[in-house]
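Suppose a classmate hands you a notebook page containing two proteins, each written out with its sequence and a corresponding row of structure tokens. How would you begin to make sense of it? This section walks through that situation. The first entry is reproduced here exactly as it would appear on such a page.
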Amino acid sequence: MYLLTIRDGLNTRHVGPYLSPKQAADDLDRLLPLCGERARWLIHALESPAELMASLGAGAARTAVVAV
């Protein structure tokens, strides 16, 4: 899944989710003319919570936490 983020001045819009980056880019072509000329955009790949927790758990097993 992908998410389109458009920053236009102080406004930030999050649009999506999309199944592919191509769908997000097609929607960007439709939305960008409605924004200011200095608008910035990004297409983000979304992570599922289960995948994120699995990657954090694997990293935690390799890293020791020391309290000072």
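The notebook's second entry, a different protein, reads as follows.
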Amino acid sequence: MRNYKVLWCDDEHENFQAIKDEAILQDVQLIGYTNSDEGGDELRQNFRDYDAVLLDGLFFKQKDQKGSDLKQTAFGEIAKILTELKANGNLMPWFIYSGQPSFVKDSNEIVEIFKDAAFANGKVFDKSKDQDFSELLEEIKKAADANPIRQIKINNPEIFNIFDTGLLLEETENELLEVFNELEKTTDIDTKAVLTKMRSIQEKVFIKLESINVLPKGLSFNQKNNHLSGNKSHKSNYTATSIEYQTAEIETLNKWIYITCGRYIHELKEQHFGGYMISVYSLKSMFYGLLEILLWFDKTYNDYK
């Protein structure tokens, strides 16, 4: 089971290590920001890394603010970003966890504005009540488990471990998630986007293998694929003359994805292309082949780094 990763905006989060420790015991990792400028930037850029957002009622707007310089506008800034993400199809569960009476007990205008968009029916969870924190963690998990992105990661743990360990970058993980989501559609699949992203992910694998000298730089695709297979040739009676990093099956998968994606990306650029166009069955088949290549890559990189 993957931990639940939560972005927490609270001016005093550094003083609540006990809360963070208790959350970790419940598989919830709270990552704190004291202000909306930094927390908002992190949310905009890396929202896919988080399962939920937790907001104090009052916290700082800017990094250099201190003491009682707390702003309701900071709450509003994060809520606005969450609303923008939702409008773009990225629904992020978010909750209010506060100790200020103006948020917990009293009617508050800014809470009323955004309450309908919050989860747990807009309830403000009270920091002074242990039961509220337990209930909050359960609500976070329940909402996060309904998120399609989290479901993809849970159902494919060996694939996404590659990104959790930092072996491939977040931008590559996002490409992979976008292909997963696109192929979940029943109609109007963006074939060009799927083909382009699969080729991009394959190329990122090759670049990473170049970084540890498994692959020399500057090779064509055919040269790369042949090198990974041990540089077999007619001259050597098709016997490997160097290290065989990949089996014949992985060699075939690499070639199939490279050639097929390349051909149909090109054909889709032709306005009046009237030839045969591959179906979603081929797209899904190639995608599963790409996942197999990622597993091979993970093992190969760690064996030869």
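A careful reader of the second entry would note: The longest strand covers residues 4-9.
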